[in-house]
Amino acid sequence: MTRRSLVELAVGVCLMAGLLVVAARWGGARRGPSDESEGPFEVTRLNPPGAAPAFHLSDLQGRPVRLEDYRGRVVLLNFWATWCGPCRDEFPAMERLSKDLGTRGLTVLALNYEEDSAAVSGFVRSYRVTFPVLLDREGRTGERYRVVGLPASFFVDRQGSLVGAALGFREWGGAAARSYLAGLLGEGA
């Protein structure tokens, strides 16, 4: 074996080890913490809150939807894409949130980022999503919210103020997430 071959082998082994570490950490984050060891629900709180950027998008049936349509409700805006693994992992728990907290004033809006309606419709059918899914085809709404990665979630209070943001996967079914949302809904912890 030549010296060059040994160096290439060593580099390859190091790269594989690094990929395994990254995969293990990502897999652990996707599983989410157990209820006993769950940490705080990490949200960047905006202080002071400001008006949430308005948008006018279409849903999958082509109906116009505006953020203002949900004034008086707490809105969880989630930017996502069908190709995004962590986005896919969040959808079942967001569906449960929508069903569990919808009658208490929560609306989940999923804003698909720059994909065509055919791909999004197939995804929505396969995941049996019942909350509104909107199409941000050109990514303009994502730009207004300064989305830099997916998934990205934003919280709008009942008065239409943007009060928080969370970049990356979140364990929406956990007690910490539900406690945060209960606070926004005015229910205390």
Account of the protein in words:
- With about 190 residues, the chain is α+β, with helices and mostly antiparallel strands.
- It folds into 2 domains: about 1-30; about 40-185, Glutaredoxin (3-Layer(aba) Sandwich), CATH 3.40.30.10.
- It has 5 helices and 8 strands, in the order H-E-E-E-E-H-E-H-E-H-E-E-H.
- Strands 1-8-7-4-5-6-2-3 form an 8-stranded mixed beta sheet.
- The longest helix is centred in the first third of the chain and has 29 residues, at about 5-30.
- The radius of gyration is 19 Å and the shape is globular.
- The model is unreliable at about 10-15 and about 15-35 (pLDDT under 50).
Oligomer: single chain
CATH domain fold name of the largest domain:
Glutaredoxin
What is the total number of structural domains? 2
Radius of gyration of CA atoms, rounded to a whole number: 19 Å
Euclidean distance between termini CA atoms: 64 Å
What is the N-to-C succession of helices and strands? Answer: HEEEEHEHEHEEH
Q: How many runs of DSSP E, i.e. beta strands?
A: 8
**CATH architecture field of the largest domain:** 3-Layer(aba) Sandwich
Could you list the spans in which at least 5 consecutive residues all have pLDDT below 50? 9-15, 17-37
Strand content range: 15-25%
Based on secondary structure, the structural category is: alpha+beta
Mind describing the biggest β-sheet? Answer: 8 strands, mixed
Average of pLDDT: 85
CATH-assigned homologous superfamily of the largest domain? Glutaredoxin
